[in-house]
Amino acid sequence: MTLTVAQLSESELLQRIFPRLHAGTSTLLGPGDDSAIIAAPDGRTVISIDTQVQDRDFRLAWPNGYATTGYDVGWKAAAQNLSDINAMGAEATALVVSLTLPGTTPVPWVEGLAEGLSAAIVALGARQCSVAGGDLSGGSEIVVTVAVTGSLDGRDPVLRSGARPGDVVAVCGHLGWSAAGWALQESGIAPENFTAGLQKAADLFNRPKPPLAAGPAAARAGATAMMDISDGLLRDAGRLAAASGSGLDLDGVVLADMAGQLAECALALEADPLRWVLSGGEDHGLLSTFPANAALPHGFVGIGSVVSAGAGQPAVSIDGRNFKSVVDGAVGWDHFAV
Fold first, then answer.
1. Is 118 helix (H, G, I), strand (E, B) or coil?
2. Is pTM beyond 0.85 here?
3. What is the pLDDT of residue 20?
4. Which of 39, 86, 131, 186 satisfies CB 3.0 to 4.6 Å to 215 for a cystine?
5. What is the C-alpha to C-alpha distance for residues 54 and 58, in angstroms, rounded to an integer?
6. What are phi and psi of 246, to 5 degrees?
7. Is 327 a residue whose pLDDT tops 60?
8. How far apart are CA 269 and CA 193, in angstroms?
9. Could you tell me how far CA 336 lies from the centroid of its own chain?
10. How confident is the model at residue 338 (pLDDT cuts 50, 70, 90)?
């Protein structure tokens, strides 16, 4: 019989969680006191927060039979928060976690969540980052909220608002793979029947791989604007364009090539892979702009240019055309859409 959290006290559950948490070099005082103490030698602290809610941001059981593990949820919670710090050109220093659990939650699932958090920190390259503490509570559904701090290490932050006409638009990381993975898990294709390409998409949905070295590298290379691609390329490109008071014109040939890499998934699901590239979220890559004469850092691919924002012109275009003539319907994730 599987032990549940209702069968343990809070202290007993924490005793199972703490040994599984990664301890990085930036934490001066970790779990056990009322607050953690995190080093901030730069004199500034970058901070962000994100939440995952059961049946809103993840399912425990998917239509294709996949069962989401605590490890999956822990990994994704770390990845999406580390990516936000990365998008400022900073490096993460600590995570604190607020965890709401129904009493029926199996204890091994919670232990897996702690292990997934720590594994993502190490595997993605944020080794100085610690899981420095958090909070436990009971509730009717699983809710995982993570706050993350980071350091700029003396660099200026890279904001969304710095793009200027003539800059190159570039991306780093995956585009469309997480959306393909989501579609697979919503489909009738059982995980045991996945090909290698389908498995890659499912893995990148369940455990995203933001390119954490790329944010600081982009800052050092002179990036003028940058943001995490969490809600889809078109939606997030529109946000960057609005913040910068400019337009972004994307290269349809490059985007089609990226869509071609998803052909195996598209064939299996009878779907349009370009829609995944343009509208799919949760890949947690980077959307950046650089001066025209700048050498793009390793991993970045040019996908367009920054243009002047003319009256009546779309904030985001593809080969000079309004993107709505290229993709129909939704253009990214909206937490409040029905």
1. helix
2. yes
3. 95
4. 86
5. 5
6. -130, 180
7. no
8. 13
9. 18
10. very low
